[in-house]
Amino acid sequence: MKSLSEIETTVKRASKAAGYSWGVSEETGKSIRLLELFGLPGIKHLNEYFNEKNKINFENLNLISENNLSSNNPYCPIALGISFLDQINILENFNKIEFRNIAYPIIFISFISRSSEIIGKKIYVKIDGKKILLNLNVNISSNFIDQEFPKIADQVEVNLLENKDNFTDHEWNNLYKLSEDTFVEESDSLKEGAAGAGLTDND
Amino acid sequence: MKVELRDPNKIMKLSRLGSFHQSKLSFLRSFLNEFKEWEYKRDLFNLNENGFGEAVYSYKKNKRVYSLVCFANEIKDEERSDRVIATKWDAAFTLHDGVPTKKDIERLKNEVPKQEVGRLSYKELTLSRANKSIRIYNHVVESLSKGKQPDLNLLSKVGYLYRTTAVYGSGKFGLADRFRIKNRKEINGPFRLEMMLVYLVRQFTFDQVNHTAYHKNPKKAVKLDDNICKNLGIGNSTGLGMAPFIVNHPTLLNNWILSREKALKEIREIKDVKSQDSDLFIDCIKKSLRNITSWNTDSKYQQKKISSLLKDVEKFINFIDKDFNFESEYPFNKIYQWLEQNTCEECIEYIVSIMMEPYNNIVNPLIKEMSSDEEKYFNIPTYRKVEELRNIIEAKYPNILDINFEEKENNKNFWFISKNKEEPRLADRFEEHGSELEQPLAIARDIKKLYDKLLVSKNSLTIAEFLISNSELRHVVRRAFIVEKFPYSEIQDNTIGKDLMPIDMLRLKLSFFGALKFDPRSDKWLRICMFQGAPLPNELKSYDEQWVYKTNI
Fold it and tell me: Which residues of B touch A21 (CB under 8 A)?
């Protein structure tokens, strides 16, 4: 088994050899390491992407807007990922960002996962109808499990989720009420003595 | 009185970093302190009469066990090489997490002796190999087998029976990644498991030499005297492989140096020094002279440094004995100021290290701050502005900005990774091929390039916008934002200039390991000694903390 450290170093060097700058290669190393840590096929897709990169002129997208459509060839997932990571503080203002035609979208996903941690918000992604939830870079959950990740995504929808509870007030209140059963009802003498401070602070 | 931390632009120069010495903060000393209460055991010692075979040593506390698995092999003299190109070694080692099963030992027997071309698993933590110092090893076996102790004069010239030629950890060759074990309290300090490996290897060398001598002449053989063992360490041959580490781990480097600087600052701020503390300090300085006079090297460069160190330490002792009063206020601050005025860099850093000896209360909390969660500082704050980045560079890299990289001598070398051994190398860019594959270790040059670009960029541009057209500078943009928070994270010197002494970079790292007797064999590799004078495993529960200044061979 390869260690994550070996994965990161080799990806960094391979990315540099594939034509990216050292700084971008460092980012790619971190991102692919993350995918492999989460059990996703980072090495496999990066390898295939680099093989195809020699034949196809993948597009770069420098400035991301709400709707992004590649003019001809699919977007490069690394350049797109770097743009997303770098611009996340602006992109945070959009509720939904759409992309058309991205090569090896799982690679792009790793950069979105890191962006999720930067803004402290979960990000929900749909790749041609399949769903992925990026949880602050702590984990990635999806219904892709046991299925091949696509080599090309026609439509990718990125939703930046507001921080809100996953449950109703009613559910919370019920649970909270139950938790109160571990508390002691305070008598007058407990009110006076148990906290260690006085009842008034008129000094 | 408040003392300022020393200026990174002075301390982070290579000549200063290359003058650092071991101290109480050093990893091998903090390792001994952490593991002194652990149960030490030799679990297996299955060597043949010539000393070849397997052995296992362990440290255990509660349910945690670390086991050193050793493989001693027979090699021909012509196969013995300290260079990384070697493929066979006298012995190979791995530190296994837990108690190795028979199956584990069989697996490791196939892999560990192959070193870089073998594969380890997440159950192994560190990997190393070592070669005998043949003249010493053979002499010791010969003497012991005749019932005599070895010639101390000969031993003092080398100081060890074996020298390691590499110690690997943190995910190399399939070893466990650091993140798997980082929450273990006992290894909350850099390189602690590497230090454990080296320490246990030292014990293996004594056991092996005793075993071999006994089988050579069972009737007459004696064991190597414990006091001699104690005064032998483990050698290490180190090449350029270590140099990129300190460039590639800026927050870690910062935390090492910052701990040292904080310790010095706090010691200088002590108003009244207790006589027992000043006595301990002076005692260590005086006893340490033996470490200087027994420091052997053929390197003219190092001989010159040792000679000025000896002269200046003697001058300092004279000053302390005749002209200095420890009862005055802030005595260590006065000493530091005197050192800066009157002694060389090598001596200043030597005495700074020894100043820490009486102060466990200052040093021990700092040891816990010497690791780094590097991932936390990796992301570039791309929402910030070009103007801010330019200000950071002007404030943090003032001397770097003065270097003219158009001049050939400032741009003479390049760092590359050798295809043959995947190891870092340094070459002349104007005479050798390959500079187009240069590694990103010319930080000073690239920071200067970044600064020049920033000068012609709009102040209001965000870093995200700046990076769109300046992707090739991304690695140094990241570093500049790191140095803003971590002042000692960057070498404030040119790592590709004509006058570069790469061994300064190695020595910096080795001093934090706790190495002694730096012996440069060229400007690119050196030999050192570790654990010389250290207590033996069975003495660890109660030992003299200042052992490092009390070697006597």
Answer: 471-475
pLDDT single digits (tens) B467-484: 999 999 999 999 999 999
Domain boundaries, chain B: 36-239, 374-485
Instruction: Provide the ipTM.
Output: 0.90
Report the candidate in B405, B427, B433, B400 with the shortest Cα–Cα distance to residue B415. B427
> Is the sign of the CA dihedral B173, B177, B178, B184 positive or negative?
negative
Give yes or no for A87 touching B (CB within 8 A): yes
Q: Is B142 exposed, middle or buried (0-12, 13-18, 19+ CB in 10 A)?
A: middle
Q: Residue A189 pLDDT more than 90?
A: no
Contact A93/B at CB under 8 A: no
Residue-wise pLDDT for B482-535, tens only, equals 999 999 999 999 999 999 999 999 999 999 999 988 888 888 888 899 999 999
B174 with A3: Cβ contact below 8 A: yes
Is there a contact between A89 and B471 if contact means CB atoms under 8 Å apart? Answer: no
CA-CA-CA-CA dihedral for B107, B108, B112, B116, to nearest 10: 50
Determine the longest span between alpha carbons in chain A, in angstroms.
82
Q: Which residues of B touch A (CB under 8 A)?
A: 121-122, 170-179, 375, 378-380, 382-383, 417, 440, 463-464, 467-468, 471-478
Q: Test B179 with A4 for CB contact under 8 angstroms.
A: yes
The conformation of residue B337, written as its DSSP 8-state character, comes to H
pLDDT, mean over chain B = 95
